[in-house]
Amino acid sequence: MFGEDLHRRVPMQMDGVEGLNTVGMFIEHAATFNKGDSCEVDCAVIAPELFESVIEVGSKGKLWDGGFFASTEVTKIYSNGW
After folding, report:
1. How many CB atoms within 10 Å of residue 2?
2. Fewer CB within 10 Å, N or C, the chain?
3. Cα(15)–Cα(44) distance, rounded to whole angstroms?
4. What one-character DSSP code corresponds to residue 49?
């Protein structure tokens, strides 16, 4: 799911935001994920202005890659330091 750099860009549909928007996902250590697994990753949005008015802890969304493959939920928000 992640490349050797432990980073992946993927389209995401976030509740309250129109269309699919690309997010960058980052993990700290290589891992194998199987259907039904869950994980916590850091994400950076490409266009933060699309999310500022609707994103909050608890916001939900879906990741896509040729179709829906995972549900998302925001657990923390970092507005500085990215």
Report:
1. 15
2. C
3. 16
4. G
Query: How big is the chain, counted in residues?
Result: 82
How many CA atoms within 13 Å lie on the side-chain side of 30? 3
Q: What's the pLDDT tens digit per position in 28-72?
A: 988 888 888 888 999 888 888 888 888 899 999 999 988 898 999
> Global pTM?
0.79
Q: What is the DSSP letter of 4?
A: T
DSSP string, 9-71: EEEEEETTS-S-EEEEEE-SS-----TT-----EEEES-GGGTTTT--TT-EEEEESSSEEEE
Residue 79 pLDDT level (bands cut at 50, 70, 90):
confident
Measure Cα distances from 6 to 28, 43, 65 in Å.
7, 12, 17
